[in-house]
Known about the structure:
Layout: H1 2-13, E1 27-31, H2 51-55, E2 63-65, E3 90-92, E4 95-102, E5 105-110, E6 115-116, E7 126-127, H3 130-141, E8 154-161, E9 164-169, H4 176-182, E10 210-216, E11 220-225, E12 232-235, E13 238-241, E14 247-251, H5 256-264, E15 270-275, H6 276-285, E16 290-295, E17 298-304, H7 314-323, H8 326-333, E18 338-339, H9 361-365, H10 371-380, E19 387-394, H11 398-412, E20 416-423, H12 425-433, E21 440-446, H13 452-458, H14 472-483, H15 487-504, E22 507-509, E23 512-519, E24 523-524, H16 538-541, E25 545-546, H17 548-553
Parallel strand pairs: 1-14, 1-15, 19-20, 19-21
Antiparallel strand pairs: 2-3, 4-5, 5-9, 6-7, 8-9, 10-11, 11-14, 12-13, 15-23, 16-23, 17-21, 17-22, 18-23, 24-25
Helix pairs in contact: 7-10, 14-15
Amino acid sequence: MIRLLFATVLACFSIASSAEQPSYGGELNVGTVNVTLSPLSWDPADWTWKSNHDHGSAREQLFAGDLTKSKRNGGPYAFIADAYLPTASMRGELAESWEWEDPLTLVITLRKGMMFPAKPGVMKARELVADDVLFSYQLVDESPKRIPTYFDHIKKVEARDDHTVVFHLHHFNAEWAYRFGYGYYSGISPREMAAVDRKSWKNVTGTGPFQLERYVQANAQIYRKNDQYWDSTVLDQQDYKLPFVDKVVYRIIKDEATYLTALRTGQLDILEAIRWIAVDHLKATTPELKWNRWLATSGQFISLRVDQKPFDDVRVRRAMNLAVNQQEIVDRFYGGHAELMAYPQPPEFGRYFEPLEQMPEPVQQLFTYDPEEARRLLDEAGVPEGFAFDLQVCSCSPSHMDLVPLIESYFAKVGLKINIQPMEYASFLSAMTTKTHGPAYMMGSGHVNPMTTIRKSFVTGQTWNPSQYSDPELDEKVRVLHLTRDENERIKMLRGLTREVLEQAPYVWLPIPYVHTAWWPWVKNYGGELRAGAVRPWPIYARLWIDEELKAKMGFD
Protein backbone atom coordinates (compact mmCIF):
# COMPACT_ATOMS: atom_id res chain seq x y z
CA MET A 1 0.00 0.00 0.00
CA ILE A 2 2.85 2.38 0.91
CA ARG A 3 4.59 1.83 -2.45
CA LEU A 4 1.37 2.32 -4.45
CA LEU A 5 0.77 5.63 -2.82
CA PHE A 6 4.30 6.90 -3.23
CA ALA A 7 4.18 7.98 -6.91
CA THR A 8 1.08 10.07 -6.22
CA VAL A 9 2.66 11.53 -3.10
CA LEU A 10 5.77 12.61 -4.97
CA ALA A 11 3.71 14.36 -7.61
CA CYS A 12 1.74 16.22 -4.97
CA PHE A 13 4.64 17.13 -2.72
CA SER A 14 7.62 17.79 -5.01
CA ILE A 15 7.81 21.38 -3.85
CA ALA A 16 11.16 22.98 -3.01
CA SER A 17 11.63 23.25 0.73
CA SER A 18 11.99 27.02 0.47
CA ALA A 19 8.41 27.19 -0.82
CA GLU A 20 6.94 24.95 1.86
CA GLN A 21 5.15 26.33 4.87
CA PRO A 22 6.55 25.19 8.21
CA SER A 23 4.16 23.44 10.55
CA TYR A 24 4.20 23.01 14.30
CA GLY A 25 3.68 19.87 16.34
CA GLY A 26 4.52 16.22 15.99
CA GLU A 27 7.31 14.01 17.24
CA LEU A 28 10.79 13.58 15.82
CA ASN A 29 12.33 10.14 16.40
CA VAL A 30 16.09 10.01 15.95
CA GLY A 31 18.63 7.24 15.85
CA THR A 32 21.61 9.43 16.59
CA VAL A 33 25.27 9.12 15.61
CA ASN A 34 25.57 7.39 18.99
CA VAL A 35 22.45 5.25 18.68
CA THR A 36 23.94 2.33 20.64
CA LEU A 37 25.09 4.42 23.63
CA SER A 38 23.18 5.46 26.74
CA PRO A 39 23.95 8.76 28.48
CA LEU A 40 27.20 8.74 30.41
CA SER A 41 26.27 11.38 33.01
CA TRP A 42 23.83 14.23 33.54
CA ASP A 43 26.34 16.20 35.63
CA PRO A 44 28.46 18.77 33.73
CA ALA A 45 31.19 18.39 36.35
CA ASP A 46 31.77 14.80 35.22
CA TRP A 47 33.41 16.08 32.02
CA THR A 48 31.86 13.47 29.73
CA TRP A 49 32.35 13.95 26.00
CA LYS A 50 28.69 13.10 25.39
CA SER A 51 27.15 15.84 27.57
CA ASN A 52 26.09 18.18 24.76
CA HIS A 53 24.54 15.28 22.88
CA ASP A 54 22.35 14.31 25.84
CA HIS A 55 21.54 17.56 27.65
CA GLY A 56 22.53 20.19 25.09
CA SER A 57 18.80 20.36 24.37
CA ALA A 58 18.41 22.46 27.51
CA ARG A 59 21.92 23.67 28.31
CA GLU A 60 22.73 26.21 25.65
CA GLN A 61 26.14 27.72 25.01
CA LEU A 62 27.63 31.11 24.32
CA PHE A 63 28.19 30.23 20.65
CA ALA A 64 26.68 27.82 18.11
CA GLY A 65 26.85 27.11 14.40
CA ASP A 66 25.07 29.54 12.10
CA LEU A 67 22.84 27.14 10.19
CA THR A 68 21.85 29.81 7.67
CA LYS A 69 25.34 29.20 6.26
CA SER A 70 24.85 25.46 5.76
CA LYS A 71 25.42 23.88 2.36
CA ARG A 72 21.71 23.13 2.17
CA ASN A 73 21.07 26.87 2.40
CA GLY A 74 23.69 27.72 -0.21
CA GLY A 75 26.52 28.28 2.27
CA PRO A 76 29.94 26.63 2.53
CA TYR A 77 29.51 24.63 5.77
CA ALA A 78 28.35 21.03 6.14
CA PHE A 79 27.96 21.14 9.96
CA ILE A 80 29.16 17.57 10.18
CA ALA A 81 32.42 17.98 12.17
CA ASP A 82 32.13 16.77 15.74
CA ALA A 83 33.51 19.95 17.33
CA TYR A 84 34.86 22.40 14.75
CA LEU A 85 33.21 25.71 13.94
CA PRO A 86 35.40 27.87 11.70
CA THR A 87 35.08 31.47 12.86
CA ALA A 88 32.87 32.50 9.93
CA SER A 89 30.45 29.63 10.65
CA MET A 90 29.86 30.67 14.27
CA ARG A 91 27.03 32.77 15.68
CA GLY A 92 26.15 33.97 19.12
CA GLU A 93 23.67 31.75 20.91
CA LEU A 94 23.43 33.04 24.48
CA ALA A 95 25.96 35.68 23.46
CA GLU A 96 24.43 38.63 21.64
CA SER A 97 27.87 40.05 20.84
CA TRP A 98 31.51 39.81 21.90
CA GLU A 99 34.66 41.92 21.57
CA TRP A 100 38.27 42.00 22.70
CA GLU A 101 38.56 44.93 25.07
CA ASP A 102 42.31 44.44 25.02
CA PRO A 103 44.49 41.48 23.87
CA LEU A 104 43.74 39.52 27.06
CA THR A 105 40.21 40.68 27.94
CA LEU A 106 37.17 39.22 26.18
CA VAL A 107 33.82 40.89 26.85
CA ILE A 108 30.63 38.97 26.05
CA THR A 109 27.24 40.65 26.07
CA LEU A 110 24.39 38.23 26.77
CA ARG A 111 21.01 38.41 25.13
CA LYS A 112 18.21 39.72 27.32
CA GLY A 113 14.98 37.89 28.04
CA MET A 114 16.25 34.30 27.82
CA MET A 115 14.25 32.37 30.42
CA PHE A 116 14.91 29.30 32.51
CA PRO A 117 11.51 27.60 32.74
CA ALA A 118 10.07 26.67 36.11
CA LYS A 119 11.39 23.29 37.24
CA PRO A 120 9.63 21.70 40.25
CA GLY A 121 12.13 20.94 42.99
CA VAL A 122 14.86 22.93 41.24
CA MET A 123 13.85 26.52 40.53
CA LYS A 124 11.21 29.07 39.66
CA ALA A 125 11.14 30.55 36.18
CA ARG A 126 13.61 33.40 35.77
CA GLU A 127 15.89 35.13 33.28
CA LEU A 128 19.37 33.84 32.55
CA VAL A 129 22.01 36.29 33.81
CA ALA A 130 25.79 36.55 33.87
CA ASP A 131 26.06 34.84 37.25
CA ASP A 132 24.75 31.64 35.63
CA VAL A 133 27.65 31.72 33.16
CA LEU A 134 30.08 32.19 36.07
CA PHE A 135 28.50 29.32 37.98
CA SER A 136 28.69 27.01 34.95
CA TYR A 137 32.32 27.87 34.29
CA GLN A 138 33.36 27.43 37.91
CA LEU A 139 31.49 24.12 38.11
CA VAL A 140 33.63 22.55 35.39
CA ASP A 141 36.82 24.46 36.19
CA GLU A 142 36.84 23.27 39.81
CA SER A 143 35.92 19.68 39.01
CA PRO A 144 38.50 17.03 39.91
CA LYS A 145 37.60 15.38 36.60
CA ARG A 146 38.59 18.35 34.46
CA ILE A 147 41.00 17.76 31.58
CA PRO A 148 44.50 18.97 32.51
CA THR A 149 45.48 22.37 31.01
CA TYR A 150 42.02 22.89 29.48
CA PHE A 151 41.28 26.24 31.16
CA ASP A 152 44.82 27.22 32.11
CA HIS A 153 44.65 30.27 29.83
CA ILE A 154 41.76 31.77 31.84
CA LYS A 155 42.79 33.94 34.78
CA LYS A 156 39.35 35.00 35.98
CA VAL A 157 35.73 35.23 34.83
CA GLU A 158 33.54 38.00 36.20
CA ALA A 159 30.04 39.38 35.80
CA ARG A 160 30.36 43.07 35.02
CA ASP A 161 26.58 43.36 35.19
CA ASP A 162 23.60 41.03 34.67
CA HIS A 163 24.21 40.77 30.94
CA THR A 164 27.98 41.17 30.62
CA VAL A 165 30.52 38.41 31.20
CA VAL A 166 34.24 39.21 31.11
CA PHE A 167 36.97 36.63 30.57
CA HIS A 168 40.39 37.78 31.78
CA LEU A 169 43.17 35.64 30.30
CA HIS A 170 46.64 34.78 31.52
CA HIS A 171 47.61 34.42 27.89
CA PHE A 172 45.93 34.15 24.50
CA ASN A 173 44.61 30.75 23.42
CA ALA A 174 43.74 30.27 19.77
CA GLU A 175 40.93 27.91 20.83
CA TRP A 176 39.23 30.47 23.09
CA ALA A 177 35.89 30.17 21.30
CA TYR A 178 35.92 26.38 21.52
CA ARG A 179 37.18 25.99 25.10
CA PHE A 180 34.26 27.72 26.82
CA GLY A 181 32.14 28.90 23.92
CA TYR A 182 30.86 25.93 21.90
CA GLY A 183 33.00 23.07 23.23
CA TYR A 184 32.25 19.81 24.99
CA TYR A 185 32.17 21.39 28.45
CA SER A 186 30.52 24.75 27.75
CA GLY A 187 26.83 24.21 28.58
CA ILE A 188 25.20 26.87 30.74
CA SER A 189 23.13 25.73 33.74
CA PRO A 190 21.25 27.84 36.30
CA ARG A 191 23.11 28.47 39.57
CA GLU A 192 20.25 26.69 41.39
CA MET A 193 21.92 23.46 40.25
CA ALA A 194 24.35 23.91 43.15
CA ALA A 195 21.59 22.88 45.57
CA VAL A 196 20.26 19.78 43.78
CA ASP A 197 21.51 16.39 42.62
CA ARG A 198 23.15 17.15 39.29
CA LYS A 199 23.53 13.45 38.50
CA SER A 200 19.76 13.00 38.27
CA TRP A 201 18.23 13.40 34.82
CA LYS A 202 15.14 14.77 36.52
CA ASN A 203 17.03 17.96 37.42
CA VAL A 204 18.40 18.82 33.99
CA THR A 205 17.19 22.25 32.88
CA GLY A 206 18.24 25.24 30.84
CA THR A 207 17.18 27.89 28.36
CA GLY A 208 17.30 25.59 25.30
CA PRO A 209 14.62 24.56 22.81
CA PHE A 210 13.80 21.24 24.51
CA GLN A 211 13.63 20.09 28.11
CA LEU A 212 14.40 16.52 29.14
CA GLU A 213 11.01 15.02 30.03
CA ARG A 214 11.94 11.41 30.70
CA TYR A 215 14.81 8.96 30.47
CA VAL A 216 14.10 5.25 30.10
CA GLN A 217 17.29 3.38 30.95
CA ALA A 218 18.99 1.94 27.84
CA ASN A 219 15.82 2.57 25.80
CA ALA A 220 14.97 6.21 25.10
CA GLN A 221 15.57 9.85 25.98
CA ILE A 222 12.43 11.93 25.59
CA TYR A 223 12.54 15.70 25.22
CA ARG A 224 9.57 18.09 25.16
CA LYS A 225 9.30 21.49 23.57
CA ASN A 226 10.24 24.47 25.72
CA ASP A 227 7.34 26.88 25.23
CA GLN A 228 9.45 29.71 26.67
CA TYR A 229 12.31 29.28 24.20
CA TRP A 230 13.68 32.61 23.05
CA ASP A 231 14.98 31.93 19.51
CA SER A 232 13.34 32.08 16.08
CA THR A 233 14.30 31.46 12.46
CA VAL A 234 13.54 33.29 9.22
CA LEU A 235 12.14 31.28 6.30
CA ASP A 236 10.99 32.98 3.11
CA GLN A 237 11.36 36.36 4.81
CA GLN A 238 8.99 35.34 7.60
CA ASP A 239 9.99 34.91 11.22
CA TYR A 240 9.01 31.67 12.98
CA LYS A 241 9.28 30.92 16.67
CA LEU A 242 11.30 27.80 17.51
CA PRO A 243 11.15 24.86 17.95
CA PHE A 244 8.69 23.42 15.44
CA VAL A 245 8.24 19.89 16.80
CA ASP A 246 6.60 19.18 20.16
CA LYS A 247 8.85 16.30 21.08
CA VAL A 248 12.22 14.76 20.19
CA VAL A 249 12.89 11.12 21.07
CA TYR A 250 16.35 9.58 21.05
CA ARG A 251 16.04 5.86 20.54
CA ILE A 252 18.82 3.82 22.18
CA ILE A 253 19.18 0.64 20.13
CA LYS A 254 22.12 -1.70 20.70
CA ASP A 255 21.59 -3.98 17.71
CA GLU A 256 22.42 -2.82 14.20
CA ALA A 257 19.77 -4.92 12.46
CA THR A 258 17.15 -3.52 14.83
CA TYR A 259 17.91 0.13 14.22
CA LEU A 260 18.06 -0.40 10.46
CA THR A 261 14.62 -2.04 10.64
CA ALA A 262 13.35 0.85 12.77
CA LEU A 263 14.34 3.26 10.00
CA ARG A 264 12.87 1.12 7.24
CA THR A 265 9.52 0.83 9.02
CA GLY A 266 9.26 4.52 9.85
CA GLN A 267 9.80 4.11 13.59
CA LEU A 268 12.80 6.37 13.14
CA ASP A 269 12.46 9.59 11.15
CA ILE A 270 16.25 10.02 10.97
CA LEU A 271 19.10 7.54 11.35
CA GLU A 272 22.25 9.60 11.54
CA ALA A 273 24.99 6.99 11.09
CA ILE A 274 24.69 4.02 8.73
CA ARG A 275 27.57 1.81 7.63
CA TRP A 276 28.17 1.62 3.89
CA ILE A 277 27.46 -2.11 3.90
CA ALA A 278 23.76 -1.49 4.64
CA VAL A 279 23.22 1.39 2.23
CA ASP A 280 22.59 -0.44 -1.06
CA HIS A 281 20.01 -2.71 0.54
CA LEU A 282 18.22 0.23 2.18
CA LYS A 283 18.16 2.16 -1.08
CA ALA A 284 16.69 -0.86 -2.86
CA THR A 285 14.06 -1.70 -0.25
CA THR A 286 13.23 1.83 0.88
CA PRO A 287 13.85 4.12 -2.11
CA GLU A 288 11.89 6.99 -0.54
CA LEU A 289 14.68 7.76 1.93
CA LYS A 290 16.84 10.85 1.51
CA TRP A 291 20.60 10.55 1.98
CA ASN A 292 23.78 12.35 2.93
CA ARG A 293 27.27 10.80 2.77
CA TRP A 294 30.10 12.05 4.98
CA LEU A 295 33.59 11.05 6.02
CA ALA A 296 33.56 9.78 9.60
CA THR A 297 34.43 12.49 12.10
CA SER A 298 36.45 10.13 14.29
CA GLY A 299 39.84 8.72 13.61
CA GLN A 300 40.09 4.98 14.15
CA PHE A 301 43.25 3.25 15.21
CA ILE A 302 44.88 0.77 17.53
CA SER A 303 46.55 2.74 20.28
CA LEU A 304 49.85 1.21 21.43
CA ARG A 305 50.96 2.02 24.95
CA VAL A 306 54.38 3.56 24.46
CA ASP A 307 54.97 3.36 28.23
CA GLN A 308 55.07 -0.45 28.02
CA LYS A 309 57.50 -2.80 26.29
CA PRO A 310 57.82 -3.59 23.46
CA PHE A 311 55.67 -0.68 22.25
CA ASP A 312 58.13 1.86 23.64
CA ASP A 313 60.26 1.02 20.58
CA VAL A 314 59.32 2.99 17.46
CA ARG A 315 60.56 0.11 15.30
CA VAL A 316 57.89 -2.16 16.79
CA ARG A 317 55.17 0.42 16.25
CA ARG A 318 56.20 1.04 12.67
CA ALA A 319 56.36 -2.72 12.06
CA MET A 320 52.80 -3.13 13.26
CA ASN A 321 51.64 -0.48 10.81
CA LEU A 322 53.48 -2.20 7.96
CA ALA A 323 51.89 -5.52 8.92
CA VAL A 324 48.36 -4.22 8.24
CA ASN A 325 47.19 -4.12 4.63
CA GLN A 326 45.50 -0.72 4.77
CA GLN A 327 44.60 -0.59 1.09
CA GLU A 328 42.96 -4.00 1.28
CA ILE A 329 40.85 -2.77 4.21
CA VAL A 330 39.75 0.22 2.11
CA ASP A 331 38.99 -1.90 -0.97
CA ARG A 332 37.49 -5.05 0.53
CA PHE A 333 36.34 -4.37 4.08
CA TYR A 334 34.88 -0.95 3.22
CA GLY A 335 34.16 -1.65 -0.44
CA GLY A 336 36.08 1.48 -1.38
CA HIS A 337 33.98 3.64 0.97
CA ALA A 338 36.94 4.87 3.04
CA GLU A 339 40.02 7.07 2.91
CA LEU A 340 43.46 5.60 3.51
CA MET A 341 44.53 8.54 5.68
CA ALA A 342 42.26 11.18 7.25
CA TYR A 343 43.54 11.40 10.82
CA PRO A 344 44.68 13.31 12.86
CA GLN A 345 43.63 15.98 10.35
CA PRO A 346 40.68 15.23 8.00
CA PRO A 347 40.02 16.93 4.64
CA GLU A 348 37.13 18.88 6.23
CA PHE A 349 39.74 20.96 8.10
CA GLY A 350 40.72 22.63 4.84
CA ARG A 351 44.27 23.97 4.73
CA TYR A 352 45.13 22.22 7.99
CA PHE A 353 44.87 18.90 6.13
CA GLU A 354 47.82 17.61 4.11
CA PRO A 355 47.17 14.68 1.72
CA LEU A 356 49.16 11.50 2.10
CA GLU A 357 50.98 11.99 -1.20
CA GLN A 358 52.42 15.27 0.13
CA MET A 359 53.71 13.66 3.32
CA PRO A 360 57.40 12.73 3.75
CA GLU A 361 58.48 9.22 2.78
CA PRO A 362 58.66 7.83 6.36
CA VAL A 363 54.97 8.73 6.80
CA GLN A 364 53.88 7.39 3.42
CA GLN A 365 55.67 4.12 4.19
CA LEU A 366 53.40 3.49 7.20
CA PHE A 367 50.39 3.19 4.88
CA THR A 368 51.98 0.55 2.66
CA TYR A 369 51.76 -3.22 3.19
CA ASP A 370 55.18 -4.77 3.76
CA PRO A 371 55.06 -7.82 6.07
CA GLU A 372 58.68 -8.75 5.28
CA GLU A 373 59.95 -5.36 6.42
CA ALA A 374 57.63 -5.56 9.42
CA ARG A 375 59.17 -8.88 10.52
CA ARG A 376 62.69 -7.51 9.94
CA LEU A 377 61.97 -4.53 12.23
CA LEU A 378 60.47 -6.80 14.89
CA ASP A 379 63.57 -9.01 14.78
CA GLU A 380 65.80 -5.96 14.99
CA ALA A 381 63.85 -4.81 18.07
CA GLY A 382 64.11 -8.27 19.67
CA VAL A 383 60.40 -9.20 19.46
CA PRO A 384 60.20 -12.99 19.09
CA GLU A 385 57.89 -14.99 16.84
CA GLY A 386 54.70 -15.81 18.74
CA PHE A 387 54.76 -12.67 20.87
CA ALA A 388 51.23 -12.19 22.30
CA PHE A 389 49.44 -9.16 23.69
CA ASP A 390 45.90 -8.09 24.65
CA LEU A 391 43.78 -5.97 22.29
CA GLN A 392 40.75 -4.32 23.85
CA VAL A 393 37.82 -3.37 21.60
CA CYS A 394 34.39 -1.94 22.32
CA SER A 395 31.43 -4.21 21.64
CA CYS A 396 29.42 -1.02 20.99
CA SER A 397 31.01 -0.69 17.53
CA PRO A 398 29.75 -3.24 14.97
CA SER A 399 32.41 -2.05 12.53
CA HIS A 400 35.28 -2.57 14.96
CA MET A 401 33.97 -5.96 16.02
CA ASP A 402 33.89 -6.99 12.35
CA LEU A 403 37.32 -5.52 11.60
CA VAL A 404 39.32 -6.91 14.51
CA PRO A 405 39.48 -10.53 13.22
CA LEU A 406 41.01 -9.20 10.00
CA ILE A 407 43.59 -7.26 12.04
CA GLU A 408 44.30 -10.47 13.94
CA SER A 409 45.08 -12.30 10.70
CA TYR A 410 47.45 -9.56 9.52
CA PHE A 411 49.43 -9.63 12.76
CA ALA A 412 49.59 -13.43 12.70
CA LYS A 413 51.44 -13.27 9.38
CA VAL A 414 54.34 -11.46 11.06
CA GLY A 415 54.36 -13.68 14.14
CA LEU A 416 52.25 -11.57 16.50
CA LYS A 417 49.31 -13.01 18.38
CA ILE A 418 46.52 -10.89 19.84
CA ASN A 419 44.10 -11.80 22.58
CA ILE A 420 40.89 -10.00 21.64
CA GLN A 421 39.03 -8.56 24.65
CA PRO A 422 35.57 -7.14 23.81
CA MET A 423 34.29 -4.69 26.44
CA GLU A 424 31.02 -2.86 27.11
CA TYR A 425 31.34 0.87 26.49
CA ALA A 426 31.28 2.07 30.11
CA SER A 427 34.08 -0.29 31.11
CA PHE A 428 35.96 0.38 27.88
CA LEU A 429 35.92 4.16 28.39
CA SER A 430 36.68 3.93 32.11
CA ALA A 431 39.74 1.81 31.41
CA MET A 432 41.18 4.51 29.15
CA THR A 433 40.36 7.52 31.33
CA THR A 434 41.88 5.80 34.38
CA LYS A 435 44.87 4.64 32.31
CA THR A 436 44.24 1.00 33.22
CA HIS A 437 43.61 -0.14 29.65
CA GLY A 438 45.74 -2.80 28.01
CA PRO A 439 48.79 -2.47 25.78
CA ALA A 440 46.67 -2.28 22.60
CA TYR A 441 43.35 -0.48 22.53
CA MET A 442 41.21 -0.22 19.39
CA MET A 443 39.08 2.90 19.38
CA GLY A 444 37.60 5.81 17.53
CA SER A 445 38.41 9.32 18.71
CA GLY A 446 36.88 12.50 17.38
CA HIS A 447 38.90 14.75 15.14
CA VAL A 448 37.38 17.61 17.20
CA ASN A 449 39.22 20.55 15.63
CA PRO A 450 42.67 21.11 14.09
CA MET A 451 44.48 21.99 17.32
CA THR A 452 42.64 19.81 19.81
CA THR A 453 43.16 16.65 17.76
CA ILE A 454 46.90 16.99 18.38
CA ARG A 455 46.73 18.30 21.94
CA LYS A 456 44.28 15.79 23.37
CA SER A 457 45.81 12.72 21.73
CA PHE A 458 49.57 13.31 22.00
CA VAL A 459 50.39 15.85 24.73
CA THR A 460 51.79 14.38 27.95
CA GLY A 461 49.18 13.49 30.57
CA GLN A 462 46.09 14.38 28.55
CA THR A 463 42.93 12.37 29.34
CA TRP A 464 42.38 11.32 25.72
CA ASN A 465 45.98 10.22 25.13
CA PRO A 466 45.49 6.41 25.17
CA SER A 467 49.01 5.63 23.96
CA GLN A 468 50.50 7.64 26.88
CA TYR A 469 52.66 9.35 24.25
CA SER A 470 55.05 11.82 25.83
CA ASP A 471 57.57 14.11 24.17
CA PRO A 472 58.56 17.35 25.96
CA GLU A 473 59.57 18.96 22.67
CA LEU A 474 56.17 18.25 21.13
CA ASP A 475 54.44 19.49 24.29
CA GLU A 476 56.28 22.79 24.00
CA LYS A 477 55.42 23.15 20.31
CA VAL A 478 51.74 22.59 21.12
CA ARG A 479 51.93 25.20 23.88
CA VAL A 480 53.38 27.75 21.45
CA LEU A 481 50.80 26.77 18.83
CA HIS A 482 47.96 27.84 21.13
CA LEU A 483 49.63 31.20 21.77
CA THR A 484 49.85 31.94 18.05
CA ARG A 485 47.27 34.46 16.83
CA ASP A 486 48.06 34.26 13.11
CA GLU A 487 46.10 31.42 11.51
CA ASN A 488 48.49 31.02 8.56
CA GLU A 489 51.32 30.44 11.01
CA ARG A 490 49.18 27.97 12.98
CA ILE A 491 48.46 26.01 9.81
CA LYS A 492 52.19 25.75 9.09
CA MET A 493 52.91 24.65 12.67
CA LEU A 494 50.10 22.10 12.74
CA ARG A 495 51.19 20.50 9.49
CA GLY A 496 54.61 19.96 11.01
CA LEU A 497 53.17 18.52 14.23
CA THR A 498 50.89 16.19 12.30
CA ARG A 499 53.81 14.85 10.28
CA GLU A 500 55.77 14.32 13.47
CA VAL A 501 53.17 12.24 15.30
CA LEU A 502 52.30 10.21 12.21
CA GLU A 503 55.95 9.24 11.73
CA GLN A 504 56.36 8.23 15.39
CA ALA A 505 53.39 5.82 15.02
CA PRO A 506 51.97 5.73 18.56
CA TYR A 507 48.97 4.16 16.83
CA VAL A 508 48.38 1.59 14.15
CA TRP A 509 46.69 4.01 11.78
CA LEU A 510 43.52 2.61 10.20
CA PRO A 511 41.44 3.88 7.26
CA ILE A 512 38.59 6.32 7.90
CA PRO A 513 35.23 5.11 6.50
CA TYR A 514 32.45 7.09 4.90
CA VAL A 515 29.18 7.07 6.80
CA HIS A 516 25.63 7.79 5.64
CA THR A 517 22.70 9.63 7.16
CA ALA A 518 19.17 8.74 6.00
CA TRP A 519 15.84 10.39 6.70
CA TRP A 520 12.26 10.20 5.50
CA PRO A 521 10.99 12.96 3.18
CA TRP A 522 8.44 14.13 5.75
CA VAL A 523 11.36 15.55 7.77
CA LYS A 524 11.59 19.10 6.47
CA ASN A 525 14.25 21.81 6.61
CA TYR A 526 16.99 19.19 6.89
CA GLY A 527 19.96 18.19 4.77
CA GLY A 528 21.84 15.73 6.94
CA GLU A 529 23.50 18.26 9.24
CA LEU A 530 24.73 16.61 12.46
CA ARG A 531 26.28 19.19 14.78
CA ALA A 532 26.16 22.93 15.41
CA GLY A 533 28.78 22.80 18.16
CA ALA A 534 30.69 20.06 19.98
CA VAL A 535 28.57 16.90 19.42
CA ARG A 536 25.52 19.18 19.78
CA PRO A 537 22.69 18.66 17.27
CA TRP A 538 19.95 20.53 19.14
CA PRO A 539 19.94 23.80 17.13
CA ILE A 540 19.41 21.56 14.08
CA TYR A 541 16.50 19.64 15.59
CA ALA A 542 14.87 22.90 16.71
CA ARG A 543 14.60 23.99 13.06
CA LEU A 544 13.10 20.77 11.65
CA TRP A 545 9.42 20.12 11.22
CA ILE A 546 7.34 17.07 10.36
CA ASP A 547 5.03 17.17 7.35
CA GLU A 548 2.28 15.09 8.96
CA GLU A 549 0.10 15.18 5.83
CA LEU A 550 2.89 13.73 3.68
CA LYS A 551 3.69 11.15 6.34
CA ALA A 552 0.06 10.00 6.40
CA LYS A 553 -0.18 9.88 2.61
CA MET A 554 2.91 7.65 2.56
CA GLY A 555 1.10 5.22 4.84
CA PHE A 556 2.72 6.11 8.17
CA ASP A 557 0.35 7.44 10.81
